[in-house]
Specification:
Chain lengths: 113, 115
């Protein structure tokens, strides 16, 4: 059973471009969470999704950021018109329904140049 | 609202020495508590968790933590560390009503084990 898979592991974007981060949850997991880790900081919750539904996006910036978890395929975190301040590690986690513990992917490190 | 404070940003320690990484939390509701480890350029791996029951929780790699409700603490300990324990450690809390999805993380403690 493969773990949570994130790709790409490293992503470099120029200011103003779009960044797409992908997350495939563990097999059988229907809940996905995205977190952002800024340098020298802990993880900050961004959004919680179930298949085809956004359950809680209270941690998402109001503009330029969006997330989806379609019926088929991975969850996508999309950042439009990236700025230098978006440079961070973005982690995805998944869990089965009702389980407290979430399992983390290895993260995508976004660098905006 | 919940918060987590990790009292030490860095902890240097010699190999085979004991170590304690401190964590305090604040919450108005009952909580679940976690410790995660992050190796360089890796994701987070769960070390241990407190959900209920015994306040002394044993985890992987010889780590343990004790939940102290009166002091709202959940300190992580290991009696003898190895070089391979060098990593960043995160304490985290989530409330029992919302479950794990809004887990709040501390800023992390960097453990550096010296030979």
């Amino acid at each position: 059973n493969a773990g949570v898979m994130q790709n790409p592991r490293h992503l470099v974007r120029r200011r103003g471009q779009e960044a797409r981060l992908r997350c495939s949850p563990m097999k059988g997991h229907s809940h996905v969470y995205w977190y952002r880790q800024l340098p020298e900081e802990g993880l900050k919750f961004m959004v919680y999704l179930q298949k085809e539904n956004i359950i809680d996006e209270s941690g998402m910036p109001k503009e330029r950021f969006s997330a989806e978890f379609p019926k088929e395929g991975p969850s996508i975190l999309r950042i439009q018109q990236v700025v230098r301040g978006d440079s961070a590690a973005y982690f995805c986690a998944s869990s089965p329904q009702g389980l407290v513990e979430a399992f983390f992917g290895q993260g995508t490190r976004l660098t905006v140049v | 609202a919940q918060s987590v404070t990790q009292l030490d940003s860095q902890v240097p320690v010699f190999e085979e020495a004991p170590v304690e990484l401190r964590c305090n939390y604040s919450s108005s509701v009952s909580v679940y508590l976690f410790w995660y480890v992050q190796y360089p350029n890796q994701g987070l791996q769960l070390l241990l968790k407190y959900l209920s029951g015994s306040t002394l929780v044993k985890g992987i790699n010889g780590f343990e933590a004790e939940f102290n409700k009166s002091q709202t603490s959940f300190h992580l300990r290991k009696p003898s560390v190895h070089i391979s324990d060098t990593a960043e450690y995160f304490c985290a809390v989530s409330d029992r009503q919302t479950g794990g999805f809004k887990t709040i993380f501390g800023a992390g403690t960097r453990l550096f084990v010296k030979a």
